[in-house]
Amino acid sequence: MLNPLLKLNTKIFNQDVEKGETRKGAGQGLVKAGIDNKNIVVLCADLTESTRVNFFAEQFPERFIQIGIAEQNMAAVASGIASVGKIPFISSYGIFNPGRNWEQIRTTICYNNQPVKIIGSHAGLSVGPDGGSHQALEDIALTRVLPNMVVISPADQIEAKKAIMTCSLTKDPTYIRLTRNSTPIITTEETPFAIGKAQIIYLPDVGLAHVGIIATGPILYKAIIAAHELGKEGIKTKVMNLSTIKPLDKEAILSLAKETKAIVTVEDHQIAGGMGSTIAEFLSQNYNIPIEFIGVENSFGQSGTPLELEKYYHIDILDIIEKVKKVLKRK
Amino acid sequence: MNNLEDEKIKYLEIKANNIRKSIIEMLAEAGSGHTAGALGMTDIFTFLYFHILKHDPKNPYWQDRDRLVLSNGHICPVLYTTLAHSGYFPTEELKTLRKFGSRLQGHPHREFMPFLETSSGPLGEGLSQAVGMSIGLKMDNRDALGNYVYCLTGDGELDEGENWEALMLASKEKLSNLIIIVDRNKIQIDGDTEKVMPLANLTDKMKSFNLFVQEINGHNFNEINNAILEAKKNKNSPSVIIANTIPSKGVKEWEGDYLWHGKAPNKTEAEVAIEKLNKLYA
Questions:
Q1: Of A46, A172, A189, A262, which one has the greatest count of Cβ atoms within 10 A?
Q2: pLDDT of res. B2
Q3: Contact B140/A at CB under 8 A
Q4: Best mutation site among B123, B125, B147 for testing chain A: the one with the most A CBs within 10 Å?
Q5: The domain containing residue A110 runs over which residues?
Q6: ω before A218 within 30° of 0 (cis)?
Q7: Tell me, what's the pLDDT at A66?
Q8: A14 inside domain
Q9: Phi and psi, residue B183, nearest 5°
Q10: How many domains does chain A have?
Q11: ipTM of the assembly?
Q12: Which H helix or E strand runs over A40?
């Protein structure tokens, strides 16, 4: 069942579940944050409408800077703007931001520890038809490896809005991973959100769970559906929303691991270096139990509908169910 | 032309000479580091910190200060030495350059020395950051209060494409509070800049970006002074001062030789050089 304490969207299992884009939520969050804080500045590299920072640009044109197609410059300019007391958000597609401009992010933002917020939209296979060149599958790895960096991957539109508003109040360099498509709304305005706090979204009606599923980003929805299906077969699972990948909520992960003694991680990202790797790094040293990974395995994506791609690259609901059964056997 | 008083020039020359001695001493002590660029930019650093820059060593975070961004971080011996001679920290500390636990990191790191405007070393990134500072200060109308951002870059690092992205933005945003000083010493690690990657007519290139460009002798205090005063008068665009400098300026035997770009003098070479500099203003 859904965790009743989190005031989640109760229509989540309906066919007509309401959908929304994380990028849109972020765009809305920026406007709200901008109203409260005059120091918030937004920079964009010629993808204003498509990364939904047009909402901010229209409301606060004097605090919006169009950089042109120059993501490397954008990152370092933002560092300079931050150094005179502003909170800059830099927006583009994940493949370019933090892909193209990774070293500028390392040196001018993280090494300087400046409060620049990096918005990488269109992450993951779910970009679909644009093809492999535009499907950022490495961005979590690229950002979580950087000292000082906070990495957030919101699960739905509402959580994306909260993530943006919350991170606008911190001094940390932060990466916010967003996606293009409309995906099911899992949380509600009332659902609590805090950076660095993982949440158990789905849990058995009674008793302890046999397997813990840890998911990040909108693919959390698939994890919940998989858990629901597994429940019908008598396999009890708990599903965790790990929207903050760094810093890791070690306490929550350890507690889930101790209860279930088997974990499946789920992400729309390369398995190498991604969220699952973070979990494996942590648990292998602190509570060594079997882990299975859902993610893209050493491959680039290609054109197709998101559903076609998710099936082909084995990050769909049936794949999660299969991995849960596999990890159970390894217990 | 607005010439400086002779006494002022003499004062700056003596300062620069002392700073050069400190640079040579610290590099010999460190055993590695970049000599040519540091000595070549000594006159400009001296002029900035001892004449025109709005700064306060006792209050390094003073809000009304000018910002100085050193983009080519490898010439940091001149930055550290000028800061020490200005009173930011004791000159004895210069001997810790490049040593474990020192604030004087091999390339500047703001975490170790928080009053630096930025860390630097990886080339081609300072200009973007200076553009960001200029934009941020302008948003708060600090340009009208006379706050300037000075960005010092090398000519070799202009190979990096990010500089040209930054120049386009600086021009678009009409950042008249930004003064870029290019150290045109015509050397980089692999040799002559015009052979490694020709910059050709840098003045024309810069002008085509709608920047206010001046070319000067980077060792002549009057020329440096006048160029900066002219830059400040210009209210419609960022300014670029292309400063022709001599690598390793001050030590005749090393001047112009690109091999001094990335190496430090040994103890004997340093002693000989310092001995000569000692005699200049005895």
A1: A262
A2: 77
A3: yes
A4: B125
A5: 19-183
A6: no
A7: 98
A8: no
A9: -80, 95
A10: 2
A11: 0.95
A12: strand A40-44
